Prior knowledge:
Layout: H1 14-19, H2 21-36, H3 43-56, H4 60-73, H5 78-87, H6 95-109, H7 116-124, H8 129-151, H9 162-173, H10 176-189
Helix pairs in contact: 2-10, 3-4, 3-5, 3-6, 3-8, 4-5, 4-9, 6-7, 6-8
Amino acid sequence: xxxxxxxxxxxxxxxxxxxxxxxxxxxxxxxxxxxxxxxxxxxxxxxxxxxxxxxxxxxxxxxxxxxxxxxxxxxxxxxxxxxxxxxxxxxxxxxxxxxxxxxxxxxxxxxxxxxxxxxxxxxxxxxxxxxxxxxxxxxxxxxxxxxxxxxxxxxxxxxxxxxxxxxxxxxxxxxxxxxxxxxxxxxxxx
Length: 190
């Protein structure tokens, strides 16, 4: 049961975003840039970072929805997403992405946990300064989103298949569209 009176039937972050459309819009725009904007990391790789951080923050809604979006970008490879969440070092991903996920794992705990050695290893494995920057920013943003979702005790479906449609929609339509739809829901409820 949510801690505050959120719109009924909207899982995870969707309820709080419909409750507060004035904050939903900039959050949607930020995540659109971070996960779908021009970048040398693919949208699938960036969604993997978001899912990995959310999984390790124990945010069921976020790791499930972004994991489903990552799988959609990765030709439906849900097993790869699961492998990354559970043990990125053994997953079938590039050494560069492994190094970036190591940075994400440390930044998730605290920004000062990221060391010069972590960054040097990522660079050695081919990561650019932009990719390192974006990994840390995705991590920071998803720590905020995870705490927003779980700090308000939002509802989230337990079944993995409930997230397939969410993941497909995020991957194909993006995040700004979702924010605009939530604004319309919020204005109708008011």
